[in-house]
Structure formats: structure tokens, C-alpha cells
Amino acid sequence: MANKYSLCILLSVLTAILSGCGMNIAIIDNVVIPDADFTAARSLKLMDPEGPIFIKEIVTTDGFNTYEYSSNRVPVIDMPDIATADFHLDEYDRNHYMVVKGKMTCGKTYPVILDTGANLDALIVQDIHIRQNDLPVYPLTKSSGPESKMSLCAVEQLTLGDFKLRDYTGVSWGQHVELKLLGLIPLGRSTDICFSLPLMSKFKYFKFDTPARQVQFSAKKSFKPQSEENWHRFPLTIEYLNNDRSKQRLFINLEVNGIPIRPLLDTGAGLGLMMNNRLWERVKDNFEETGRSKFHFILPYHFEGNKPRCVGIKVKDLSLGDMSIKNAEITVLPETKNWKKTDCIMGMGYFREKTVVLDFEKKTLWVNK
């Protein structure tokens, strides 16, 4: 307890000193850090070509070095008809996206983000998961561009409540996020795993019971609400990148303040509606703005501009179809090539303390009234 108070006093003093000097420095900030080179780790277990995940180096028709991967064995799913998993409370309270407790073979608990914004058919892991669980890994050092920092691995087991997944492909982006004091002193690091959209869409539905802090999902049973009148409903569409069914994007069709829009639905984002500045300029007259704030947004390293400066715009009233939200915030980001496939994203920020069902079978998002 004394250490906590000492840290608070230190931060207060530093803030006063830096403000007095006219310096605009973030005291505590998230910083994107490259992972240590896996190829230099003597104790690392390199992937066996006869193991669960098969890797093959290829050269594309335009001369780029890259890789193909596939499974030597069928991934195993062990679950009841309806599985449940508890929210990872610390991570949810901090970030407000859909995140549950997960365990790997070492028995440690990690936050697992149920992330429809991740479109790769793999579990997205970090270097800490590979090292702590002694996972077989294959660094993609012969690739060109950002992919050269990535690694493939074989996830031996992931447990979410009473659901178990074995022998599934994992991908590490080659980076993680650290919380740093004055950009120098590490205070903690990210340990989350992404359970991506291609994985989630193999199930009939996911029910995010936010008041109970629990997720329910099933591969066999359909979602059947007791009374449909008690739910807001929004149509969903899955699209495939370049007709590749392993690379998916999920869109929600709705009207925002009477404007038809089609955001990408991202359950791995804790903000509400996010849009590029070009779309905001087109629709801003439909909102009554009540305030603004500025902040930075962390993006994966392979996105342009790792940490763009964003504007949080408070609006008096925001309607999503027949659903009304008071004092909502819209996040406006600079337009870059990251917006090539969509001009807006809908996160989970407007659905806090509500029950939300992602119904892949009926292609519907249900929000409890």
C-alpha cells in the first residue's frame, strides 16, 4: 500500500514539474515493442515439419518470398452443447471489449479476446505465450515486408471455461504493447490472445452476458430468445477477402441518426463508433456536438501509423436504428490505407451492461432492451 501511495505522489510531482516547464509528455503511456528475435533463443523449440502445423516456403509469381501453412492433423474441439466462459474482469473493466479467461498448457491464465476484428484463421498469440508454454515455433524470416517479423506456432491447447481447442495454428505478429513510465520504465505488458472471426464463425452464436460477466456459445444449439420484442436486431454480413474463406470481415447494417452506414463490427474494440475523418465531415451535421478530447490509438505494427492521434467527439444523442444512446462518443481517426476495406468500425462501447448476441446462424446482432 505504501508503494502505491509513493508512486502516486511521484507521478503528481513529475506532472507538476513537466507542466511547469511547458513540456507535453505522457507520464504513463502504451508503447509498441518489437519481440526478441526467436531465432536467437537457444532453448526455443522449432516447429517439426511432421508436427500438427505444416510449413512450406514458396516464391510467389511476382518474386516475393512467403510461406504456406496447413494442418497435418485435424484440430480437436472438446465442448458441451452450450459452453460458458467467465469474463477476464481486469481486462474487461480496463478496455470494455469482449474478453474471457483462457488457459494454455502451462496452466497460466491469459485474457482471450473474442475478436471479430481479427480476420485471420488462427489464434493470434504473443511471444510470452510461445515461451511460457514451450510452443513449437517457425519464424517467418524469409518473408518480405512486415510478415518477416511474424512467426507461426502450434497451439497445443487453449481452454475457455468448459471449451477446449487443441492443435490449432497460432500466429505471432512479432510485437507486444508495454505500459511505460515516461516512456522508459516498464510497468507491465500485454498478454492477450485473439480468438479471431474465422474461428468464431464456426459456432452458431456467442452470447455476451455483460451484466453476469459471462460468455455463452454453441456449435450445435441455436440462439432462441424468449421474446423477440425485448431485443434490438441488426443484420450482419460476412465478406471474404479475395474469395479466401480463411480471411473474413464482419459488417453490421444499420442507420446512425438516420444515416445508412455499414461499419465493420469489432467485438475486440472497446470504443463505440469509429470512423475516418472523411466520413465524419460528411455526416457531422446530423449530430449535436457537446465536447471533444484527443488521444492516441494503438494499432498492430503492420498497420500504417502505429499510434495515430484521434479525436473523441461527444454527441448529445446517437441512435442506432431503434436504439437510442445519450451522450455518446464517436472516435474520429485520420484517413490512411488502414481504411481501405471500410470507412467506419463499430466496437462494443455502446453495449456496456447489456446482453449482446452475435448470431452467425441467423446473421443477426441481438442487443437486449
- Class inferred from helices and paired strands: mainly beta
What is the global morphology? globular
Mean pLDDT: 85
Strand content: over 45%
Measured between the Cα atoms of the first and last residue, the distance is 42 Å
Spans where pLDDT lies below 50 across 5 or more residues: 1-24
Count the beta strands: 28
- Tally of individual helices: 5
Helix percentage = 10-25%
Q: Any idea what the radius of gyration is? A: 22 Å
Biggest β-sheet description: 8 strands, mixed
Quick summary:
The chain has 369 residues and is mostly beta strands.
Main features:
mainly beta, disordered N terminus
Describe how the helices and strands are arranged.
Layout: H1 2-20, E1 28-34, E2 53-59, E3 65-71, E4 76-78, E5 83-86, H2 89-95, E6 99-103, E7 109-115, E8 123-125, H3 127-132, E9 137-139, E10 151-160, E11 163-172, E12 175-181, E13 185-189, E14 193-196, H4 197-200, E15 205-209, E16 214-218, E17 231-241, E18 244-252, E19 254-256, E20 259-261, E21 264-265, E22 273-276, H5 277-283, E23 289-296, E24 309-320, E25 323-333, E26 344-346, E27 355-359, E28 364-368
Parallel strand pairs: 7-14, 8-11, 21-26, 22-25
Antiparallel strand pairs: 1-12, 2-3, 4-11, 5-16, 6-7, 8-14, 9-10, 10-11, 12-13, 15-16, 15-27, 17-18, 17-28, 19-20, 22-26, 23-24, 24-25, 27-28
